[in-house]
Amino acid sequence: MTAQRYRYEPSxxxxxxPVALQVFGVGMRIAxxxxxxxxxxxxxGGGRLIEQPxxxxxxxxxxxxxxxxxxxxxxxxxxxxxxGDGPRKTFVENxxxxxxxxGPTRWAQAAASAAVNRAYFENLVWSMQSSxxxxxxxxxxxxxxxxxxxxxxLWTAIFQRFDKAGDLNSLLLWAEDGYAMRAQTGGWQAPxxxxxxxxxxxxxxxxxxxxxxxxxxSDAFVSLLxxxxxxxxxxxxxxxxxxxxxxxxQFPDGRSGRGKHGFGGLGRYNDVGHTTYRSPxxxxxxPHVPEPWSQxxxxxxxxxxxxxxxxxxxxxxxxxxxxxxxxxxALQQALQSALDGPLQGQPPARxxxxxxxxxxxxxxxxVLRQAVRAVLxxxxxxxxxxGYHLGERLGDCGAAxxxxxxxxxxxxxxxxxxxxIVINARRDDGATVLVVQPNNPAYRAHFRKRPxxxx
Length: 455
Prior knowledge:
Residues 325-438 form the Type VI lipase adapter protein Tla3 C-terminal domain. This is Type VI lipase adapter protein Tla3 C-terminal domain-containing protein. It comes from Rhodoferax koreensis. InterPro entries: Tla3_C. 31% of the residues lie in helices and 22% in strands. With 455 residues, it is α+β, with helices and mostly antiparallel strands. It has a domain at 310-446: Thiolase/Chalcone synthase (Peroxisomal Thiolase, Chain A, domain 1, 3-Layer(aba) Sandwich), CATH 3.40.47.10. The strands form six sheets. Strands 1, 2, 6, 8, 9, 10, 17, 18, 19, 20, 21 and 22 form a twelve-stranded mixed sheet that branches. A two-stranded antiparallel sheet has the order 3-4. α1 crosses α12, α2 crosses α3 and α2 (59-77) packs across α5. It is globular.
């Protein structure tokens, strides 16, 4: 039974449980390639690794490049081209967006701590604002930082966050990996290479000075902006009563500039047809919305495009020592759930999968192939236009893999109008299966440019 909701109050969380979340934005840099180019590069490669950048030559150069890609990726995920002919716009200003921030596993010599997490969070906020978004914020109170390379089960936790919070209307996801990050966290070591001497591992300097190999870590920076319109309806009711705090300055040369949109107090009346709504006298902050939005902020939210829909994940869990047949059965059940639920029995246009790296990756790949064959016997996983091995096409994205698969599937959904199953099977003790569905053709037809186009 739906709980009674009073005007100007958020819905109860159980009343708006999401079957799927909207993908508002995708920001990616994989091997230095931006989101706007990635899908075309992957398709043109025909199953091969996308073009790799020149070696940076040193750790300092690698770190400088990483700082640049952080800024551009965070800038891209919060910018969009709206429907019609309007100028490029940004997500809601002056709103502290909750975030899930992910990096690779930190080893003992570089263990995570509250101070480490805080410094990383502040670095990302600086990166975002220095990308030309000085009016945008991340929520320090409602953001989390985790350090785990095998993190695909975060998708279940992400949906659970929305399940528990009726006021959670958007969530920013961020993950990065690569040698610049691994130099801080540990775990960059490559397998022994003949070039470095029999049985001797390569040094980091040697890796950064030679051409990239398919087995190397990719420079991977991925950010997704997820949303749920149902959780913002109460803010829409409040917005007409909010005085916008924006200040406009006129310069002597005739130009003008403005400050950020935001909450400047309550007090305005709102006429709706023959009904006039008085402004509430006070506003009680909620866990994810410290201040109500003005109409300008509400418009920024409403105009943010929905690139695709990502559906609630199905998890396959098993022990590392379980027989292969039992692991296949568990993954088969998760795949069948995706097929019967979001896809309504229709096979996807493509399956994107990542069995990870390491000694057991081939065993994980075998489990994946057998599970797909059992659920979709006619699906040609070996066809480069149907089966997409993300590790072979994007390289080893490490801690960014779980978000990179959904990011690429969302770009493909917008550009092709087709669905995808994304399987992250990098762990020995389980895998996560998600479905990405496109928005409808009529909606996409309103956009003269791809929302994530640069200019």
